[in-house]
Design brief:
Elements (H helix, E strand, L loop, with lengths): L11 H22 L5 H7 L4 H17 L1 H11 L1 H21 L3 H16 L2 H11 L2 H15 L1 H7 L1 H19 L2 H11 L15 H13 L1 H32 L4 H28 L4 H21 L6 H12 L1 H15 L5 H30 L9 H7 L2 H27 L3 H6 L16
Length: 447
């Protein structure tokens, strides 16, 4: 059924909606990262040890990853605006509860709801980009969305740290929780799901919904996007959220200030490389998965040099390490661009949700494996970690890099075969540097 177009694609209204949605994503990243600068205060406030503190981060990621498919289903059913509003309300109330609780159990529940609200945001923004902008603009805007969102981590590291120092835990977290209120108003008033006229959502029975999810997952393009995200994202996530700082300080002998500076350099490099990669992907769409593999190989080579370096690595090499590792963040965004090639608009929420699971599952497994190896090597605990321990533990990453590269190459072959069979001429279109716009959903596309 043809719908009347009410607004210009890529016009002023589209940019306004994107700006509001991106600000919501920045806030989500801010809430996700907020505990990073409050770790020491949290151990005192809740009277917990380091393992319990790490549980906060792991729990958030588990909730985030576990909700991606349900969120994708709800996104296709209710639209981006409804889920953005739900995510904002959930994060705001959860962060407010986190500000006032002094119980570890209640704090854990609050952080779980922060993760739940966070899980609703990113795929909604990508859906809005797909709906409101030209396909050729999509790759660059998806990259910009991901990179601008990282500013939330920068804000968490700076202003939030200052607020905690000046006003204490309760006032600081209560104040930042209220940032969601004006964004709620802006989202309710300005965001619209599509530039086309609204139609009543189709009510799908549970059995039909399960069949649809299986079909989307069965599409090799969805799996190619998921494995691209899995392979390229985890190294940066693990480094920034958990093991990078201890590796630089306890392993490489840097001062806390120098280690913090390198982590900031990573965020800056993510934004710069994301712009370049977004342009490159839009020019050579047929080679997107090869670009991902190339970046992952560069990460592997750089880590190998650092881990084999006799003694502590020089600062220039560590700068190269954090920049190359950070390039995995923009590379992971290519996974969503791949999913869009193989998915019509009505299933894009489910496809993006499945892609988004990849990197976070890999991150969780890598974080856990590195921690297990360090515990086995140093029963005395974190205070005894040295460079030798980290050299062994960081090798856990190679397992997931190897698995991911093999799967990317496997599903790239299957995805090309799929396009040639289901959409004759699509492969030639991509080879010519032109975007392929999926014409619609067909149940036969499940493989």
């Amino acid at each position: 059924m043809t719908r009347a177009q009410l607004h210009e694609i890529g016009g002023r209204r589209a940019w306004m909606i994107w700006i509001v949605a991106v600000l919501v994503y920045v806030l989500a990243v801010f809430h996700r990262s907020s505990l990073g600068v409050a770790g020491l205060i949290a151990t005192e406030r809740f009277e917990i040890n380091g393992t319990q503190l790490a549980f906060f981060t792991v729990l958030q990621l588990v909730v985030y990853a576990g909700m991606q498919v349900p969120v994708g289903v709800m996104l296709d059913r209710y639209g981006s605006r409804a889920l953005l509003l739900s995510g904002l309300v959930t994060m705001t109330l959860a962060q407010l509860a986190f500000a006032f609780t002094t119980s570890f159990g209640a704090a854990v529940v609050a952080r779980a709801f922060v993760g739940a609200g966070d899980a609703m945001v990113f795929v909604c923004v990508l859906r809005l980009v797909s709906a409101w902008f030209l396909v050729r603009q999509g790759s660059m805007l998806a990259q910009l969305t991901g990179q601008i969102g990282q500013l939330g981590g920068v804000v968490a590291a700076g202003p939030l740290s200052l607020l905690l120092h000046e006003y204490g835990w309760t006032k600081a977290f209560a104040v930042v929780s209220m940032i969601g209120v004006p964004l709620l108003v802006a989202t309710a008033c300005l965001v619209k799901d599509s530039p086309y006229e609204k139609i009543a959502p189709v009510r799908i029975k549970l059995r039909a919904l399960a069949t649809s999810v299986r079909s989307v997952w069965g599409n090799p393009g969805t799996r190619l996007g998921m494995w691209s995200h899995f392979t390229s994202q985890f190294s940066m996530t693990v480094f920034v959220l958990l093991w990078g700082y201890p590796f630089l300080v306890a392993g490489q002998g840097l001062t806390p200030t120098a280690a913090g500076t390198l982590l900031t350099v990573m965020i800056g490099w993510v934004m710069v490389s994301g712009i370049v990669l977004g342009r490159l992907v839009s020019v050579v769409p047929f080679y997107r998965s090869w670009i991902v593999v190339g970046i992952v190989i560069a990460i592997v080579v750089t880590w190998t040099v650092v881990l084999l370096w006799p003694g502590q690595a020089p600062i220039w090499l560590l700068v190269v390490l954090v920049c190359v590792t950070a390039s995995g963040g923009p590379a992971s965004m290519v996974g969503f661009d791949l999913a869009r090639t193989f998915s019509p608009e009505e299933t894009l929420g489910r496809a993006n949700g499945m892609v988004n699971i990849g990197g976070f599952v890999a991150s969780l497994m890598t974080m856990a494996l590195i921690g297990i190896i360090l515990d086995l090597l140093e029963p005395a605990g974190a205070t005894a970690y040295d460079l030798g321990d980290f050299r062994v533990a960081m090798c856990a990453q190679y397992v997931f890099w190897l698995l991911g590269i093999v799967q990317i190459l496997r599903y790239r072959r299957k995805a090309i075969t799929h396009l040639e069979r289901m959409h004759p001429g699509a492969v030639e279109t991509l080879k010519q540097g032109e975007p392929f716009v999926h014409p619609g959903f067909n149940d036969r596309e499940g493989v």
